[in-house]
Amino acid sequence: MVAEDIVIKSVERKLAAQSREIQKASPDDPEHPGWPAGTPDGLGGKFRPKEGSATALSQKIKNQVERRELRMNLIAGLHVGIGALANLIPGAELAADVAMLADLARTISEYRKLSIEAAAALNFVQNAPYDLQDLQVSSDYKEFSSYDQFVKGRPSSRFMSKYFGSAGDGSQYHHLVTQGGANADAVLPQLQSTENVLILPTLLHEVVSDEYLGSPPDDSGGTLYQWLQTQSYQIQREYGLKILRDLHILK
Amino acid sequence: MEIESFVKVGEKLSKLWEEISGLLDSEDHVAQARALLRGREIVKEFELLKTEALAIIAALLDDSNSVSDDERAASLIRGFEFGARLADTLHDEFRDIADGETKVVRLTDAIVKALPGRIRLAVLLDHPDPGVRSLACTYLIDLMPERVISVLEEIREKRRGQSAGMRALTTLFGWEHGRVSRCSSLAK
């Protein structure tokens, strides 16, 4: 009986502990965060990823990429005359014409490309963070005298046994230390090197580049991009790595 | 004006993205045209909200009706809080950085200059919104570095990838490499 009591009490304790552990998801509870009531796709009341977790970060970046691109494309689309598309809708006075359909087809085709690029960015983010080497074009250190050289190479140079070509469909080269502005005229031999140039999905590259357009830490009135270029190569590189880490791209 | 209005517009954009994605291979040109037209309206709504929000802060800066320094300071600090939340929303919901967040931060620069004593911003170091705390820190780091650095380090750790975290990163980085702050010229 004594042994049985001990077993029963142990099970009771375990059940009590379990019931304490069962928590309801709440939109305002940082430990057990939940989607608020009314969230689309039946998510209301269910658990959502914890703030700062890799999943939450991936979801945030996915939303930001999509919204940014959609907004930019819609703004760009305004000049093509999206307004005229109203004519395609039944009930409108004017009939749709061939030019209008062509405009629509072109716009939809741009969105199709965007959709593929967004999927590539999402796929990349879901497998992030990466080691720096994973994003470099080569593990061997090589310097080039210009970006053009980095991409196209110069067969006559003995240092140029190969060149890297384009970054590939849906990808772009990203410079940890930025290559334009004041850096373009500075003596920075590492600028166009395998250490400084990484490959990122196009849309993610745009998101990273956006960060450099934010405010600098001082009140010089320029951008972060301009402020960084007043710093040494090593400091610029350190910041470039930090941004990628904060965006959950690098480990 | 509520910042949540922007969040709702962001949600509309996300829904529209899903809808357009589902129509990309469709031959239903009417549905495609409708979706694009709706997109145009959403973008217009966003731009109008942004213009209105920036105008609210600008008007606050022009307001000289407050009778005492304390009243003026209280009004400017409320404007600062609003600006911080607006800047973060534009960054985090839309990635509207160059034309959105940066413009707002220039206005908060002006608010700080108009404040009768920027140390008054210290009340915001305990603000529940990490974005408001981190923006206040950018103007206070040279006045009270120890306190501000600990606030920023916590925000940086917990808000990675978001506006508040990025701002904490940049502020700490500038302090570490040159002791600069958003009030460097004021300090001189």
Task: Characterize the structure shown.
The complex is a heterodimer of chains A (251) and B (188). Chain A is mainly alpha-helical. Chain A has helices spanning 2-21, 54-78, 98-126, 132-135, 147-152, 181-185, 202-211, 224-228, 233-246, and strands at residues 171-175, 197-201. Chain A has a two-stranded antiparallel sheet. Helices cover 75% and strands 0% of the residues of chain B. The model of chain B has no long low-confidence stretch (mean pLDDT 92). Classes of the chains: A mainly alpha (251), B mainly alpha (188). At the A-B interface, helix 2, helix 3, helix 7 and helix 9 of A face helix 1, helix 2, helix 3, helix 4 and helix 7 of B.
Overall outline of chain A: globular
- The H-and-E topology of chain B, N to C, reads as HHHHHHHH
Strand order of the largest sheet of chain A: 1-2
Taking the alpha carbons of the first and last residues of chain A, their distance comes to 56 Å
Tally of contiguous helical segments of chain A? 9
Number of strands of chain B: 0
Overall pLDDT confidence of chain A: 77
The percentage of residues in β strands of chain B lies in under 5%
**Percent helix of chain B:** over 70%
- Residue share in helices of chain A? 40-55%
Q: Give the CA-based shape of chain B.
A: globular
Question: Which helices and strands occur, and which strands form pairs?
Answer:
The complex is a heterodimer of chains A (251) and B (188).
Chain A: H1 2-21, H2 54-78, H3 98-126, H4 132-135, H5 147-152, E1 171-175, H6 181-185, E2 197-201, H7 202-211, H8 224-228, H9 233-246
Antiparallel strand pairs in A: 1-2
Chain B: H1 4-23, H2 29-62, H3 69-94, H4 97-114, H5 130-140, H6 145-158, H7 163-176, H8 184-187
Helix pairs in contact in B: 1-2, 2-3, 2-4, 3-4, 5-6, 5-7, 6-7
